[in-house]
Amino acid sequence: MATIKDIHVRTLEKPLDGTIRNPRYRWTVKRSFLVFVETSDGRVGAGESWVDGGAPGSLTAFVEEDLKPVLVGQDADLSEQFFKRAIDMTAVSTRRSQTWACMSAIDIALWDLKAQRTGLPLWRLLGGNDPRVMPYASAGLYKTGQTADQFAEEYAAYVKQGYKAVKIKVGGASHAADVERVTKLKHAMGPDARLMVDAVSAYDVPRAIAFARAVAPLDIYWFEQPLAIDDVDGMVRVHEQGGIPLCGIENDYGLPNFRRLIDRNAVHFVQFDPIISGGITYGRKIAALAEAAFRPVTLHHSNSVVSMLANIHLAAAVANADSVERHVFHSPLFERAPEGTFAMTDGMLTAPERPGLGVDLSAMIG
Predict the structure, then answer these.
(1) Are 34 and 132 part of one and the same domain?
(2) CB 167 within 8 A of CB 140
(3) What predicted TM-score, i.e. pTM, was given to this entire model?
(4) pLDDT given at position 54
């Protein structure tokens, strides 16, 4: 039995110049929050937490002061038990989001370790469905001074590189300007490639329906997170009236929230991100909820190589995975992955066969 010997936190920051934005804010810095679990058998597992939208200090303190003292010395195989205990504690605390974020990172690290100990790649340890996973090129951000024609040329190039799907942002410009961007890109991509649009909760119900109806004739594959994440009633209306299948919600957590989306038919594509939605342990449960309702899942990514690999392994292990996001703007530590890790064949990635997640970042803990 391997026990948890130590837990280490590492944060990364990349300054950005503010010329690129999504519908909500300009990117002036990109942060990554990594958690490394070290065990008594000398192994190190890597995990990651969602940290966008604020400084990482509160998450660091939560890991080091609340979670680490409880977990050190415990059996490293008991990820389900640890998550249940942590969630139970949120019933009498104000730290619900910190718990999900930090425990998601620890959970991924524990599964990385579990797979390392068995000598298996994580996707095989999880049951293994299909090592081939479809990535889509994602960003489509607003760039200062870029015309719609230049935008279309930039993102259609990913189809020429071999991607079968591209996702872009909408809701950050006028209705006419966004419709123009989508129209020109779809025509530049050609009829066979998928195009998805993501509003990052930028719309209200009437504007979302109007936009969806305007671009629906272009065969848009999904319309992601058009409204505030708590407006499930509104999402039902947009889903029913807009003419495009809805997708969401990347930064939500808790099985009841995903069950509500499914039960209300607020989304068709059930989207989640393991680095906030519960790591591998809860990612499998969300996928099972969706499968029981005959819905596909798609995994969000806009962070480091750790979260990308966790997504690939999880998608390769579940039967209803539609796709994984491959962010072409945010990609910290991708250079640390072994050569060929993200090579595509016929538009598909192949899950690594190396033990665990398939990347060794243990040198980062010093």
Answers:
(1) no
(2) yes
(3) 0.97
(4) 86
